[in-house]
Amino acid sequence: MSRVSEVEYVDGNLLWNARGEVWAHWTVAAPTYQYLSDVKKRDYFRRTSLMLQGLPAKSMLLSLCCSIDGYSLQQEMADIAGWAPLSVARSGQLAAKYGVGYTRHYFVAACLAGSSQSFSKLASRSVERAFGVKRLPPSKREVASRRLEMEQLGVKLSALEMKESTAGEVNWMLERSTRRGIGGLQIEGGSGDGGLCNAGTVDATVSELRTKLPTANNFVKVDSDVGESFQTFLAVSGFPVDGWQYPGSEWLAFLDMWALPVDWCIRLRFVDNASALSKASRRKKNLFSQDNEYYSPEAVPASLKTLQESIDELESSLDSDPVTRLVEASIFLSVTERSEAELVESVGLLRERLRDFRLQAHAPIGGQTALFKSCLVGSGECREVRDYKHYLL
């Protein structure tokens, strides 16, 4: 078995990784979206947009499932007005019948500015890790400085109701990566209060496999001290070409309420206006130059024309507002089961639901292990994160 994460130190909601980056984490108090009125939904969308505008260049959004037992379900239902007290057995029956066997936790993670290291230091640290040399904990002065920076960033993100994550919650996000589909780890069960190499010391064997045709599916088999699970990571690769319709396009909210527990991770990279405008101009030039490859304007595919119109609109939006940042978003969905056959069935159901929202998703061949690690907090970006970028404003 080997270590699955790059985390080396945790102090409260702050996390230091092997790349020299420092990440801050917040736990979001998300409402039960489908029960909100249209007015409150629009207000929540507005506040979410304001929060996103305050994020730094490298950030992550996470929606993670946590198994819930009959007693906990009973307690949650008792807190809802109109629900009579339920027996533990009855709660378990409801969980089995209606798929309420898990709850969700939402997190925002942000990489603090200026927290990367030079290539030589990264190479040196990589050698040290290979020989099992532990990193010295950050100094009290550095921790205090990073905590002040985190608190200042938290003010910018205060449009949404959220609190600083605890060290236990940060550890839980890491430890559950090898326990998905197995259970046995509640969110309160994350290890300790942080410390040197305490978080992320989760050992497991992660091997990439592929089922045979005709039900081909790429996945990873995770062997840990608590058992084995099979996990597939799908990259959302295509959005509706004619845009989103409201209401009805809130597909992430739908997945959050679906009986099948699906984790999702959105890796965000914000590009300043000048750099984004330069990228858009180069992309526009490349797309429009492809017209010359066809013998007549009528022969140009509709898909290419749609892309040309989109990039032209993007360039105009960036040019009209010099403050606007370009958002590069990579969206990944994770499904976990205890057997290969169950995984294939669940992935098939998920693909069907995504098609209902006119979405395309693929499980990259040869990239499942990399995505397993890239969807962990405090991790770096793999090639697949860059390959499946969506450009948003």
Question: If you had to describe this structure to a student in words, what would you say it looks like?
Answer:
There is one protein chain. This protein has a 15-stranded antiparallel β-sheet that branches. The longest helix is centred in the last third of the chain and has 19 residues. The chain has 393 residues and is of the alpha+beta class. About 6% of the residues have low confidence. Strand 10 and strand 11 form a beta hairpin. It is globular, with a radius of gyration of 22 Å.
List keywords for this structure.
alpha+beta; 393 residues; globular; 12 helices
Give the topology, please:
Blueprint: E1 2-3, E2 7-11, E3 14-17, E4 22-28, H1 38-53, E5 58-67, H2 70-78, H3 88-98, E6 102-111, H4 119-130, H5 140-156, E7 162-164, H6 167-175, E8 194-196, E9 203-210, E10 218-224, E11 227-238, H7 251-257, E12 263-271, H8 273-289, H9 302-320, E13 326-337, H10 340-356, E14 360-362, H11 368-374, H12 383-387, E15 390-392
Antiparallel strand pairs: 1-9, 2-3, 2-8, 3-4, 4-6, 4-7, 5-6, 5-12, 9-10, 10-11, 11-13, 11-14, 12-13, 13-15
Helix pairs in contact: 2-3, 8-9
The outline comes out as globular
Biggest beta sheet attributes: 15 strands, antiparallel
Poorly predicted parts: 81-94, 96-100, 196-201
Q: Give the rounded overall mean pLDDT.
A: 79
- Judged by helices, strands and strand pairing, the structural class is alpha+beta
